[in-house]
Write a structure and sequence with these properties.
The structure holds 2 protein chains of 2 kinds.
Chain A lengths: L23 H8 L10 H11 L13 H7 L6 E5 L9 H8 L1 H15 L3 E7 L3 H17 L5 E6 L8 H8 L16 E3 L2 E7 H18 L10 E8 L5 E6 L4 H7 L6 E6 L5 E4 L9 H5 L9 E6 L4 H14 L6 H18 L7 H12 L7 H15 L1 H8 L21 H5 L1
Parallel strand pairs in A: 1-2, 1-5, 2-3, 6-10
Antiparallel strand pairs in A: 4-5, 6-7, 8-9, 8-10
Helix pairs in contact in A: 2-8, 4-5, 5-8, 11-12, 11-14, 12-13, 12-14, 13-14
Chain B lengths: L2 E5 L9 H5 L4 E3 L5 E3 L9 H10 L5 E5 L11 H13 L1
Antiparallel strand pairs in B: 1-4, 2-3
The chains are: A alpha/beta, B alpha+beta.
The structure holds iron/sulfur cluster (2 copies).
């Protein structure tokens, strides 16, 4: 995956000379020195990030500073975890950011760690990126020469879809399985041994680094008022130039899509991630911002945009994604373990024109039985995806119900789908 | 204080004893896993609910104090309602 360089719409995180600020020298030349932040600056930093209106860029989209208050009250020194697990197959932005602007991410992590008096920073990467690990080790060595900071340790954790889920991440850090855990009360902070853990997405921390330098007013200078600033979008699907673009929030979807150069007319886009929502072509004038998307039942999520052209079949593509999500179920919870394959089965029959008469009704009932019934939100994402597909591809659904498989159903997929893994065997 | 029945799907074995013990509050889904139909435990069922929690072999059920204020709803429901409406029209 590459940066879609000549088509960057704005350049805050990415861009710069040669499109990269990889070395510390280049980084400092472009951004200037990072303010040194310790506990005395905790309130100032939190206030600045709050005024900036920075939202988490990992998926949930909650205000970034809100997580800090639960940590600040604990007596032990916390640990700051940088979440670069990026389990979404169609997402490439976090690891790309670590490759191209590693010091910005590290500055952000150090700022948060300093403000909270953290004892360590845990840089969490998937275990299938040895190149990125080597690169980051070099970058960390560069920093060690110039400043004494909170120790940073790289953790290579099992790469899988749910690995970036916070409880799964912390469990993996503890040396346990990277499985999500049931969390009855989400305001209770996560713990690693006896220390509390604050998990932040990679991109979120890069924005924190910029806010610490230039302030909230600067940050709010571009983008949508509700979720200001810029954000990274991973473009994939039926595109001539897939890759990562940085855009101002609020940019119309069509402009973002065009940066990826669709090679055929696009019929729909999948937004957010594989647990996200389909939006039809007619919705492409919608600004890429939480408010306008919410009205369509969509979210920015992990910053994923997948294009499917008119020659593809949205139902078949949805089936493939749900099959993938089913294979990535941690297999702990019945409704997720049995429900997701059942949903995929129904979609498959529909796409092949082999639907029985009760299919749509059964599918709706199953969606209700799966929704909200896992320990984590993995199955909820699949439900959202399928529901949005039934709306977005409603004409196809009725055609398929009449027994017509569409030509697109046999076309190779436009989705990025890693080989289906059987985790259950590995988990035991 | 009112209590809410919580089900932990990650450890439940799906044998469904709870649904037999507490059918007023727990149903079963297509795959035999309990579906909590009534979340807040009515006064009259408190004893039965405690019994079900106690006899769940996996300790997958718990009674927790009801959150104060309005119960929070999952945000994904919005899209779902539209989907349901769409299918009703078909
Ligand atoms: S809901 Fe699915 S993915 Fe989440 S913990 Fe349960 S089985 Fe695992
Ligand atoms: S009794 Fe416990 S383990 Fe058995 S189905 Fe009910 S909740 Fe699950």
């Amino acid at each position: 995956m590459t940066i879609v360089e000549e088509r960057q719409l704005v350049a805050r995180l990415l861009g710069g000379e040669q499109g990269a600020t990889q070395s510390l020298a280049e980084h400092l030349r472009r951004f200037g020195p990072a303010p040194s932040i310790d506990r005395r600056h905790a309130e100032v930093l939190a206030g600045e990030v709050e005024r900036a209106g920075l939202t988490g860029r990992g998926g949930a989209g909650f205000p970034a500073f809100r997580k800090w208050s639960t940590i600040a009250s604990s007596r032990r020194r916390p640990i700051v975890a940088v979440n670069a697990m990026e389990g979404e197959p169609a997402s490439a932005k976090d690891q790309l950011l670590l490759a191209y602007a590693p010091h910005l991410v590290l500055d952000g992590a150090e700022a948060v760690a300093g403000a909270l008096g953290a004892s360590a920073i845990a840089l969490c990467l998937p275990d299938d990126r040895p190149g990125l690990v080597a690169h980051l080790e070099e970058r960390l060595a560069e920093r060690a020469r110039t400043r004494s900071a909170v120790p940073v340790e790289i953790y290579q954790l099992p790469a899988r879809y749910v690995a970036g889920e916070e409880t799964a991440l912390v469990s993996a850090l503890e040396g346990g399985s990277s499985l999500p855990a049931f969390r009855a009360d989400k305001t209770v902070p996560l713990r690693l041994g006896r220390a509390t853990v604050l998990v932040h997405n990679t991109e979120t921390l890069a924005h924190v680094a910029l806010i610490a330098r230039y302030g909230a007013v600067w940050f709010r200078g571009v983008g949508d008022p509700e979720a200001p600033g810029t954000c990274l979008v991973s473009l994939s699907g039926d595109l001539a130039a897939p890759g990562v673009v940085e855009v101002e929030t609020g940019t119309p979807l069509r402009r973002i899509l065009e940066a990826g150069r669709p090679n055929e007319p696009v019929q729909a886009v999948l937004l957010g991630g594989y647990g996200g929502s389909w939006l039809p072509e007619s919705a492409l004038e919608t600004p890429y911002a939480p408010g306008p998307l919410r009205r369509l039942g969509a979210v920015m999520g992990a910053g994923v945009l997948v294009a499917v052209s008119t020659s593809g079949c949205g139902i078949r593509e949805t089936e493939r994604v749900v099959r993938y999500l089913a294979s990535e179920s941690a297999g702990q919870c019945g409704p997720c373990l049995f429900g997701l394959p059942a949903l995929a089965e129904d979609l498959g029959r529909l796409a092949s024109g082999k639907a029985d008469r009760g299919l749509v009704e059964r599918l709706e009932r199953r969606l209700g039985e799966v929704d909200g019934r896992g320990a984590c939100r993995h199955p909820d994402g699949a439900v959202r995806l399928v529901r949005s597909a039934l709306i977005t591809f409603a004409p196809d659904v009725s055609a398929h119900l009449r027994g017509a498989p569409c030509a697109g159903a046999h076309r190779p997929t436009a989705m990025v789908l890693p080989p289906v893994a059987d985790w259950r065997r590995q988990v035991g | 204080m009112a209590e809410v029945l919580k089900w932990n799907p990650a450890i439940c074995d799906g044998f469904g004893y709870c649904a037999e013990m507490l059918p007023e509050m727990i149903g079963l889904d297509e795959w035999g896993f309990p579906m909590v139909k009534v979340h807040e435990v009515p006064e009259t069922l408190l004893a039965a609910a405690r019994q079900a929690v106690k006899f769940c072999p996996r300790r997958a059920l718990a009674l927790v104090p009801a959150p104060v204020g309005t119960p929070r709803r999952r945000s994904v429901k919005g899209a779902g309602q539209r989907a349901a409406a769409g299918s009703a029209r078909r």
